[in-house]
Amino acid sequence: MTSHSHEPLPQSRHIATEIPGPKSAQALARRKEAVSAGLGMAFPAVIARAEGAIMEDIDGNRIIDLGSGIGVVTVGNANPRVVSRVIEAAQAFTHTNFTTAPYLGYIEVCEALNKLTPGKFAKKSILQNSGAEAVENAIKIARHYTKRAAVVVFEHAYHGRTNLTMALTAKNMPYKEGFGPFANEIYRMPMPYAYRWTGDAATMTADALADVTHKIEKEIGAKNVAAIIIEPIQGEGGFIVPPKGFLPGLSEYATQNGIVFIADEVQTGFARTGNYFAVEDENVEPDMIVTAKGIAGGLPLAAVTARAEIMDSSHIGGLGGTYGGNPIACAAALGAMEAIAEDKLVERARQIGKILNERLTAMAAKYSVIGDVRGRGAMQAIEIVVAGSKDPNPAAMASVIKYCQAHGVLILTAGTYGNVIRFLPPLVISDELLVEALGILDDAFAAL
Ligand code: PLZ
User: Fold this and answer.
1) How far apart are CA 175 and CA 414, in angstroms?
2) Is the Cβ atom of 231 under 6 angstroms away from ligand 1?
3) 6 pLDDT tier (thresholds 50, 70, 90)
4) Within 13 A of 378's CA, how many CA atoms are on the CB side?
């Protein structure tokens, strides 16, 4: 039985009008009047429906989605397993507040997280509404558990937009400019960014680890560090993949020094990189993992999962929130997890990664403005530079994005230097649709 009472949305690209079309243009004028100017807009079309890897705007254009709403609808937009559970949950009840009166969905999501996350030790979880809120809780719990204050973060990091998570985030513009003062006791460390560093992977790893541990010991004192938090592949920073050995080295150092090692898997988690979690690539077992985005197929849900003794260190009532682990979001998460398992989406992420990487590498050979191709699984990126150099070329990137938009392909950008095109397609995208979208990207570079 399908949960859709309407016609399925064809999984094909269709250009009906200019983008934005007349109806979108009208709605965008209202947006301008009604909505804060502080919000950006990556794609100038107003969406009426979306399913799988296609979004349809109010003018009838069907757009290929290579962004998944920033890595959220990993299981495809309006995945039937998510939608049917959401409808069922909403009809049962919409809210209690889990700390007022509990319900099974919350418990089941925590059980699933404790099982799916790497590490054979006993684990427990809490649920929140957003990645930033979960990161805040992760730090708060790590500080309470260790009775230490300092938090170690990295160059190019992104952890959110709340006060503490802005402080953890590296990039000033647009995330921090004018929004301070920021939380203290945050220490930023060098991040081995292979494309912009020198030496082979082993050298970069050794250099970076030596630098980080030296700075921790000389500038903070290891015994004052509550947590080291890192994205296993940096997302907003530009899909920066650390060289082999860096994450295991950090994790080992943390363990030796009683520091909680936190993996922020908000963007990398839930099948995206061809594993459930990106840290699995090097068999790293973080003490704590933060998840969000892909966890619930589009509904707001986030989680902190960690060693049981860390999660239990807080006094009763020390953790909470009104909406965290809302029953409808939990139902969506259970649907998304079912989709990942039953539809073999971890495996699918690897296949998508292969197609993406092959096509992007071929484009990089043809177009010298593509300086680097990197990523893992269905999380791939290209870095756009001035031909013959490594100078960032955001202008060329903007032209490429504009061309793709006009031709009905949604692609997101990223990067400390604002010059990275990133690919986060829904894992239910067909090979044909993916290849078609990449063909348009190829045309966009040819048209430069
Ligand atoms: N940690 C690794 O990628 C969110 C930001 C979109 P929230 N990334 C998308 C934007 O411009 O605001 C993110 C992330 C990592 C934490 C977060 C924060 O997650 O759900 O946006 O709070």
Assistant:
1) 13
2) yes
3) confident
4) 38
Helix (H) or strand (E) holding 53: none
Q: Which of 244, 247, 258 is nearest to 118 (CA)?
A: 247
How far is residue 208's CA from residue 210's CA, in Å, rounded to a whole number?
A: 5
Q: In the predicted model, is pLDDT for residue 129 greater than 80? A: yes
Do 288 and 209 lie in one domain? The reply is yes
Q: 380 C-alpha vs ligand 1 centroid, how far in Å?
A: 17
Region 411-439: mean pLDDT is 98
| Residue 183 domain-assigned (yes or no) | yes
Q: Looking at the structure, do residues 64 and 112 belong to the same domain, yes or no?
A: no
Residue found under tokens 């930023």: 188
**For residue 418, which amino acid is it?**
G
Instruction: Give pLDDT tens digits for 132-150.
Output: 999 999 999 999 999 999 9
- The predicted structure's pLDDT at residue 1: 40
Given this model, what pLDDT does residue 319 score?
A: 98
Asked whether residue 16 is domain-assigned, the answer is no
Alpha-carbon separation of residue 256 from 123, 134, 297 (angstroms): 20, 25, 37
Q: Rounded to the nearest whole angstrom, what is the distance from the C-alpha of residue 344 to the centroid of ligand 1?
A: 26
* Residue range(s) defining the domain that contains residue 218: 82-342
Q: Among 342, 364, 382, identify where a domain stops.
A: 342
Ligand 1 atom 21: residue of nearest CA: 131
> Is the Cα torsion angle 353, 280, 295, 319 positive or negative in sign?
negative
* Pocket lining: 74 vs ligand 1, CB cutoff 6 Å: no
- Whether the model clears a pTM of 0.70, i.e. scores above it, the answer is yes
What are the distances in angstroms from CA 363 to CA 106, 370, 382, 395? 45, 8, 10, 18
Which CATH number characterizes residue 431's domain?
A: 3.90.1150.10
In the chain, % of residues over pLDDT 90: 98
Domain end residue (candidates: 342, 372, 393): 342
Distance of CA 410 to the CA centre of its chain: 17
Distance, in Å, from the CA atom of 363 to the CA atom of 360, rounded to the nearest integer, reads 5
Q: What are the CA-CA distances from residue 378 to residues 5, 11, 116, 122, 345 (Å)?
A: 31, 19, 19, 30, 10
Same domain, 192 and 125: yes
